[in-house]
UniProtKB/TrEMBL annotation:
It comes from the Bacteria. Keywords: Lyase, Pyridoxal phosphate. Belongs to the Orn/Lys/Arg decarboxylase class-II family. CDD domains: PLPDE_III_ODC. Its EC number is 4.1.1.17. Residues 27-260 form the Orn/DAP/Arg decarboxylase 2 N-terminal domain. Its cofactor is pyridoxal 5'-phosphate. PROSITE patterns: ODR_DC_2_1 (PS00878), ODR_DC_2_2 (PS00879). It catalyses: L-ornithine + H(+) = putrescine + CO2. InterPro entries: Ala_racemase/Decarboxylase_C, De-COase2_CS, De-COase2_N, De-COase2_pyr-phos_BS, Orn/DAP/Arg_de-COase, Orn_de-COase, PLP-binding_barrel. This is ornithine decarboxylase.
Length: 378
């Protein structure tokens, strides 16, 4: 999504004092309403890690959103924004026992697990809490696939939830994540098939699960069009009916990128334009922001952001983009160089669009002395 008029007006009135992110809250509101309309029977748990700006959290809390959190700090942010504890889940499967205890003391009663060992920690620190077990998915079709770091096989999920019940916990349901920036509408069908099998296996033993957390993965538009929320809603509801029939359980979705990605634009500046040899056909364009300043998702060139320059319309040639730090890993697009105007020069401002998610949270604190990415919400 192109920069909104509100963002452009704000930038025109704000001195360029280094790279900054500007998030249009009206776009966040529109995205929330689109998800609520597309999946009216699912509770929305915004993934706080995508963008924890207080203004974003407060807006979503006022709209009725719940929150998926990965740490005690994020739990406290959600509560400070106006969410009640029953609207917050501790969705990280890797938690210190003292953090589980702190969350429990704050009133949180919904925890993610993916192994018996984690269930044992929850049972000790938050007795009687509701738990859901994360099931592995292949992530096929996602532009930012998630690794095997989280989740377990469906067969093991049965064992984990069975053990959770024996530990005195409420075996509440299962979760999965089909991979970030997931553009394959059928991805949820495959994952819901696995979830239904876990439900059915445990139901035969008298353990009745009640919830499926269908995770995030909802995309934002970068250089290519992506399906709209309504299309995801139709595909997901169809898959739920296919695998659960008339006994559809409670459902949760955890949009992050899809909620805030297209709401943000980063203003950056060209620091240097050079070539590595006199006959090099590819220029190097160095910006004042790179992987360590918030663009970590350019790793392996998985996410290709739309870039707008004041020279657009002029002839272009391929460019490697890189950040300003003294680290050779701080290169954005080298495998597939980015076409940029030949006239682009030092001092030009560029807008990096679709950057409302996973930029401020990935920004280093002070690597090479560069400050964290400044953020504004308007």
């Amino acid at each position: 999504m192109a920069a909104t008029r509100r963002i452009l007006d704000f930038l025109a009135q704000t001195p360029n004092d280094g790279p900054c992110l500007v998030v249009d809250l009206d776009v966040v509101r529109d995205n929330y309403e689109a998800f609520a309309h597309a999946l009216p029977d699912s509770r929305i748990f915004y993934a706080v890690k995508a963008n924890p700006a207080p203004e974003v959290l407060s807006l979503l809390a006022s709209l009725g959103s719940s929150f998926d959190t990965a740490s005690v700090a994020e739990i406290e942010m959600a509560l400070a924004a106006g969410a009640t504890p029953d609207r917050v889940s501790f969705g990280n499967t890797i938690k210190k026992e003292r953090d589980i205890a702190r969350a429990h003391a704050l009133g949180i009663s919904l925890f993610a697990i993916d192994c018996v060992e984690e269930a044992e920690k929850v049972a000790r620190a938050a007795p009687g809490a509701r738990v859901f077990c994360r099931v592995l998915t292949d992530g096929e079709g996602a532009e930012w696939p998630l690794s095997r770091k989280f989740g377990c096989t469906p067969a093991l999920a049965v064992d984990v939830l069975r053990a959770s019940r024996a530990l005195g916990l409420d075996a509440y349901g299962v979760s999965f994540h089909v991979g970030s920036q997931q553009c394959d509408l059928s991805a949820w069908d495959r994952a819901l098939s696995d979830a239904a099998n876990v439900f059915q296996t445990l139901a035969a033993e008298g353990i009745v699960l009640r919830m499926v957390n269908m995770g995030g993965g909802f995309p934002t538009r970068y250089l290519r069009d992506v399906p709209q929320a309504e299309a995801y809603g139709r595909a997901i509801f169809s898959a739920l009916r296919k695998h659960f029939g008339n006994q559809i359980p409670e459902t949760i979705i955890e949009p992050g990128r899809g909620m805030v990605g297209n709401a943000g634009v980063i203003r950056s500046e060209v620091v240097l334009v050079s070539r590595k040899s006199s006959d090099d056909p590819v220029r190097w364009v160095y910006l004042d922001i790179g992987k360590f300043g918030g663009l970590a998702e350019t790793m392996d060139e998985a996410i290709r952001y739309p870039i707008v320059t004041p020279r657009d319309g002029d002839a272009t040639e391929p460019c490697v983009l890189a950040g300003p730090t003294c680290d050779s890993a701080d290169v954005l697009y080298e495998k597939a160089p980015y076409p940029l105007p030949i006239t682009l020069s030092v001092g030009d401002e560029v807008l990096i669009e679709g950057t409302g998610a996973y930029t401020t949270t990935y920004s280093a604190v002070a690597f090479n002395g560069f400050p964290p990415l400044r953020s504004y919400a308007i």
